[in-house]
Amino acid sequence: MTLINSLVTCNPNSQAAMRLFCFPYAGGNSLLFRKWRDTLPKNIEVCPVELPGRLSQRHIPPFTRMKPLVNAIALSLLPYLEKPFAFFGHSMGGLVSFELARFLRANYNLQPSHLFISGRRPPQIPGTAAPIHTLPLPEFIAQLRRLNGTPEAVLENAELMQILVPILRADFAVLENYTYIDEPPLDCAIAIFGGLEDKEVSHEQLAAWRAQTTNSFQLQMFKGDHFFLHSAQDLLLQSLSEQLLIKKTEV
């Protein structure tokens, strides 16, 4: 069995009232959230999750199935769940955080106070696009270019792509091999974010996340495509700040 050191990086903050665990999109890493600590309220401890295969976890092969990935993340998170916590995940990260919330509920009787999911259709709606994780390299890169999540300079850099392609293939395998299993809705509040020009996820699909909670539900749209979390980052963080401050007063 592969040994994995902690996938979570939390800056110790004795004043923090809540921890926000952040999950990246396919191919992404913890650096996506490097500025969040300086923007979100100081009583929110931002804890990026580093998935295997990248940065500090580059020595660990990336997972290709959801269940073992969620199990590994849960073991890393458990020491940090002694205080209220919330999840944020974009695209793949949204689905991972949702399944992690269900895993923690089933196995440890724990749930996040708030689940923030960005740019991801709900799990009960199956995808219609053909799988891409096994495509030959030219076709795979063409699909990455269409998704517009990888800078052109990176796509054209053979050395960088040699490192990135195995990670991306594994992440897309996690998504494309995923099978939704019906369970009761979560008890935590769910807030969904979407991009107005996102061709991957529609407003109607985002709204269907409502079925996954017995608690409050919010849906907020931002200007931008599937990667609006970059182009509309300030507005997104403002919304997160407001909602997390509300949750803090309720805790």
Model description:
This protein has 9 helices and 6 strands, in the order βαβαβαβαααβαβαα. Helix 1 links the parallel strand 1 (18-23) and strand 2 (44-48). It has a single domain (18-126, 180-250), classed as 3-Layer(aba) Sandwich (Rossmann fold), CATH 3.40.50.1820. It has a 6-stranded parallel beta sheet with strand order 2-1-3-4-5-6, with helices on both faces. The chain has helices spanning 36-39, 66-77, 92-108, 137-147, 152-155, 158-176, 203-207, 228-231, 233-250; strands spanning 18-23, 44-48, 85-90, 114-118, 189-195, 217-222. The chain starts with 17 loop residues before the first strand and ends with a helix. The chain is globular. It has 251 residues and is α/β, with parallel strands linked by helices.
Can you summarize this structure?
The protein is of the alpha/beta class and 251 residues long. The chain has one domain (18-126, 180-250): 3-Layer(aba) Sandwich (Rossmann fold). The protein has helices spanning 36-39, 66-77, 92-108, 137-147, 152-155, 158-176, 203-207, 228-231, 233-250; strands at residues 18-23, 44-48, 85-90, 114-118, 189-195, 217-222.
Radius of gyration: 17 Å
Query: CATH first level: which class?
Result: Alpha Beta
| DSSP helix fraction | 25-40%
> Could you tell me the mean pLDDT?
91
Q: How many domains would you count in the coordinates?
A: 1
CATH architectural group: 3-Layer(aba) Sandwich
Distance between the termini: 39 Å
The amount of beta strand, in percent, is 5-15%
Derived from helix and strand composition plus strand pairing, the structural class reads alpha/beta
Number of helices: 9
Question: What is the oligomeric state here?
Answer: single chain
Report on the biggest sheet. 6 strands, parallel
Task: Give the H and E element order.
Answer: EHEHEHEHHHEHEHH
In total, the number of strands is 6
**In what order do the strands lie side by side in the largest sheet?**
2-1-3-4-5-6
Global outline: globular
CATH topology: Rossmann fold
CATH superfamily: Alpha/Beta hydrolase fold, catalytic domain
Low-confidence stretches: none
